[in-house]
Amino acid sequence: MCGIVGYIGKNDTTKFLLDGLKELEYRGYDSAGIAVLGDKKIDVFKALGKLHNLEEKVNTSSSKDYELGIGHTRWATHGQPTELNAHPHLGEYSYVVHNGIIENYKELKEELINLGHKFVSQTDTEVIVHLFENYNNKLNDTTKAFHSTIERLEGAFSILLITKAEPTKIFFFKHGSPLIVAKGNDENEVLFASSDAPLIGLANDVVYLEDGVGGIATTEGIEFFNNNYSWSTLPTSKQFAQKNGFRFFMEKEIYEQSDVVVDCMLGRLSDNEILFDEIDKSLIDGINEIKICACGTSYHSGLTASYLFERLSKIKCNVEIASEFRYKDPLLTKDTLFVVISQSGETADTLEALKMAKVAGLKTLVICNVDNSSMTRTADATILTRAGIEKGVASTKAFTTQTIVLWMLALYFGKAKNVLTNDKLSEELHALREVPKSLIIDDNMHEKTKRLSKRYLHGHGFFFIGRDVFFPLALEGALKLKEISYLHAEGYPAGEMKHGPIALADPELFTIALMPQNLLYDKIKSNVEELSARDSTICSISPLDFDLSDDFIKINETDHYMLEFFEMLIALQLLSMEISVRLGNDVDMPRNLAKSVTVE
C-alpha cells in the first residue's frame, strides 16, 4: 500500500511532490523518494522513514527548476525498507514509481539479467524500468516500448515513468491499483496522485483511471491510449474527498475492505507459502504456546485466530482481554509467544500487557495498523496490517486485515512446524486469494440490509449466534450494532443458547444466525430451530435457504468457511450501519466512544 504523485508544469515541481506525499503518507512511510527532471538531467532524492527525512534531503540540495517529476511513499513489500529498495527505481536513463505487485517479476528479472541488465534492489518494481529500456533500446520508440512493457506485466500495478529519452513526458498506466490524472488549475499543468487529497485546490478536472487505461502526459496535454475514460469534477473539500462520495467514513471503509485486503497480502502471499519479512525465523524457535492479548474488535480477531492456530498450526493458543489480563497475576512461561493486536498501537490496556510480557522475558509480536506507535516500538517484531486510515470509530477494515494477518500467521507457523500437508496449505492459500472477491459488496445485499433495517428498530435485544470461528464473528456483529445503534446485542456460541439464554426467546428477541455451509451447518441449524420453536424472530445469513427464517440474507456458495466468514462480516457491518442510519445516529462518531483508547 503506497502513495504516488506526479507533476508537469511551470510551478514548483518539488513542492507539489512533497506536499502530495504528505497527503498520502498514511499509505506508507517505510521510505519515500522523488525523481525530478530538468535540462535532460534527472535528480533523485530518497530517504528512509517519515517524509520529513526526504524533505531535509531535498531542501539541502542545490535547488533548480524542474519541468516534471514523480514521487512515491512506500510500504515495504518486496525487500526490506532501504534506500536501494525505495522508489523511484532507476534504469540507465529512466525512472519509475509503482503501486501494486508484479506477480511475474522473478521470470522477467531473470530474463533481463541474462540480457545484461544490472539490478540494485530486491523489489518487483525495478523490472518495469529495465523492461522498458530493453524495449526502447531495440525499438527506439518510447511509446511502443511502454506498450510492450505493459503487455508483459502480470499482477496489480499503477505506474508513472519518466525517461531522459523523452524528457517532456510522463508515461502512466493503471491496472488494479488506484491512480488519478488531473488538469491543473494553471495552464499546461498535469498532476497525478493515487487519491484525491493531493489534488484538491490544485485541479478541478480529473480522470479516475479505470483498469487498462494509460497514456502520455506533456505540457501540451494528455494522450490516452484508449477511450475508456471520462472527466469528472474534483471535490473542493478534503473531508468530502476522503469519503469518496459515501455517506459516512464507516460506509466507505466497509467498501474499501476488498482493496485493503489486497494491500495486506502484498508480498506475503506467494505461490506455495506465506512470507513475512518482518519476522525472523528465530521468533518461532522453542515456542509451544501462543497467547493473544487485545481489546474490543481486536480481541474478536484474536479469538478467530485461536481456532485457526490450533487447527492449522497445531499449537496451543489462548486469548485474553487485555484489561483483565493485567490484574490476574498471569502465568507466563518463556515457551510462549505473546501476541498483541491493536489498530492504533496505543491501546493502553494492551500496551501495558505487552510490557508485562516483555518484563517476563517472553518473545513478543504486535499486529498493528500504525507504524512507529508505542506497541511497534516495544515489541520484538511487528506485522503491519496496512489498512490505511480508519476514521469511523466503529472498526471495520481494521478487523478484516487483522484477521487476514492472523490467518496467514497460522499458516506460516504450520509450515515452519511441518504440521501442514502441501495439499492443505495449497487449499488455504487458494482461499486467501479469493478473499478480496468475497469482500466486494453486492448491491443487492446492501439494498437488502437497508430494507431489513426498518424491522429491527424495537424489541428487547439481539442475539448474534455462531459456532467455531463464527462465534467470534457473532461477537463482532453484536459489538458493531451496540457501538453505532445503541441497541442491546449479545454474541453467543450457538450451542450455549439452551444453557440459559433461550429463556429470553420471544417474538421481540431478534436472532441473527450465522449459518455457514462449510462448517457445522447441521449443528447451527439445530440450534436455530430450538430458538424458532420458542418464537424468536430469526434472521439467517447463509448460502443455503432456511425455511424457518423470518428474514434471510443470502451469501454466495463457496468451498471454504473463511470465505463465508468474510462475506457474512460484510452483511453484519452493513446491517448495523443501516439500523443506525434509520435511528438517526451519528454513524462515524457514536456517543461515548473514541477511536484510540489511550487511557485505562
Walk me through what this model shows.
By secondary structure, this protein is an alpha/beta fold. The protein folds into three domains: 3-243, 4-Layer Sandwich (Glutamine Phosphoribosylpyrophosphate, subunit 1, domain 1); 249-438, Glucose-6-phosphate isomerase like protein, domain 1 (Rossmann fold, 3-Layer(aba) Sandwich); 443-583, Rossmann fold. The protein has 17 helices and 24 strands. The chain has an eight-stranded antiparallel β-sheet with strand order 3-2-4-1-10-9-11-14, covered by helices on one side. A six-stranded antiparallel β-sheet has the order 5-6-7-8-12-13. It has a five-stranded parallel β-sheet with strand order 16-15-17-18-19, with helices on both faces. α7 packs antiparallel against α13. The relative contact order is 0.08. The model has no long low-confidence stretch (mean pLDDT 89).
Could you outline the blueprint of secondary structure elements for this entry?
Layout (H helix, E strand, L loop, with lengths): L2 E6 L4 H12 L6 E8 L2 E8 L2 H10 L7 E7 L14 E2 L3 E9 L2 H10 L11 H14 L2 H11 L2 E9 L2 E10 L4 E5 L5 E4 L9 E6 L4 E6 L2 E4 L7 E2 L4 H6 L5 H17 L23 E6 L1 H18 L2 E6 H4 L10 E7 L5 H12 L3 E6 L5 H5 L2 E4 L12 H20 L5 H17 L4 H11 L7 E6 L3 H16 L3 E5 L15 E6 L6 H13 L3 E6 L8 E4 L6 H23 L17
Parallel strand pairs: 15-16, 15-17, 17-18, 18-19, 20-21, 20-22, 22-23, 23-24
Antiparallel strand pairs: 1-4, 1-10, 2-3, 2-4, 5-6, 6-7, 7-8, 8-12, 9-10, 9-11, 11-14, 12-13
Helix pairs in contact: 1-2, 3-4, 4-5, 7-12, 7-13, 8-12, 8-15, 13-17, 14-17, 15-17
